[in-house]
């Protein structure tokens, strides 16, 4: 590879990084998954937010045991306000919400010497969309096979990384050294599919048998967050190289901004991550060219 080409790649990566930093500083949009979840995480239909932590597990177990086909839940009152009353005789599922108490509330005054604002668990009862009247779950448009980018397909097919399209989520599993993705048809657009695949393939480059990327030395407990920065920057670099998106999508900035918050808004960390991301993309390119 010529020095001119290396210089061009360096300029491209720097440009992408700077655009993402500018988007973060301007207020990056909230990140949304680029695929459509049919089963997916349990979600509150009124707030459009996914349940988290133990509530995810509770509603998954309840939904599976009762055979519910949709992940949408809400309280009795929320369903009624949406115009879809819960059918008589339906049994609710219980979720837990942690509320921070303010002075004057009974639980907050239990120990006057304790100046911290305590949290208390509050139980809420929710019902699935299958338990209400007149609600039709949203339908999803299937992404056509004709939307595939043949150059990108050849690139990813040439990599020595096993990719399985067998899940509702996207992730790299180190124990089996495999990337897992939702099916192509589930994505909202082709660019979303390829950037997600690129993200997980960048994660895979960090395996001991590849680049052996260890970020704990500099970042310690924040190494997981920085690894996410590396993967998302790498995805943005690779999509630009493949001509899939000449400029980074707002999704990239939104995703990266969420991890920079974990790093106490240390925007300098993104440049360290960018160097690691460039090394990961170089590894992917070299193994593609070897094929």
TrEMBL record:
Which stretches make up the Polyvalent protein metallopeptidase domain? 151-275
Domain named N-terminal: which ranges? 11-127
Coiled-coil features, chain-numbered ranges: none
For this protein, the record's InterPro entries field holds: Antirestriction_ArdC (IPR017113), ArdC_N (IPR013610), MPTase-PolyVal (IPR041459)
Top-level taxon of origin: Bacteria
**The protein's name:** Antirestriction protein ArdC
């Amino acid at each position: 590879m010529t020095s001119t080409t290396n210089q061009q790649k360096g300029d491209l990566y720097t440009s992408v990084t700077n655009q993402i930093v500018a988007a973060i500083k301007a207020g990056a949009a909230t990140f949304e998954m680029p695929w459509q979840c049919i089963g997916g995480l349990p979600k509150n239909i009124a707030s459009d937010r996914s349940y988290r932590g133990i509530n995810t597990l509770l509603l998954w177990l309840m939904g599976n045991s009762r055979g519910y086909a949709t992940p949408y839940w809400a309280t009795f009152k929320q369903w009624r306000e949406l115009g879809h009353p819960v059918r008589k005789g339906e049994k609710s599922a219980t979720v837990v919400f942690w509320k921070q108490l303010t002075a004057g509330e009974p639980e907050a005054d239990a120990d006057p010497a304790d100046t911290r604002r305590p949290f208390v668990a509050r139980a809420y009862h929710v019902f699935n969309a299958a338990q209400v009247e007149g609600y039709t779950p949203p339908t999803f448009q299937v992404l056509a096979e004709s939307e595939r980018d043949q150059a990108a397909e050849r690139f990813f097919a040439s990599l020595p990384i096993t990719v399985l399209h067998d899940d509702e989520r996207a992730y790299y599993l180190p124990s089996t050294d495999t990337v897992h993705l939702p099916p192509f048809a589930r994505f909202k657009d082709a660019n979303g599919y390829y950037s997600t695949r690129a993200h997980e393939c960048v994660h895979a480059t960090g395996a001991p048998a590849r680049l052996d990327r260890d970020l704990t030395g500099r970042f310690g407990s924040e190494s997981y967050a920085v690894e996410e920065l590396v993967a998302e920057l790498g995805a943005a670099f690779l999509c630009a190289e493949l001509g899939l998106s000449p400029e980074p999508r707002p999704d990239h900035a939104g995703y990266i901004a969420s991890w920079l918050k974990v790093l106490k808004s240390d925007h300098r960390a993104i440049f360290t991550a960018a160097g690691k991301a460039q090394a990961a993309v170089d590894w992917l390119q070299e193994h593609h060219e070897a094929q």
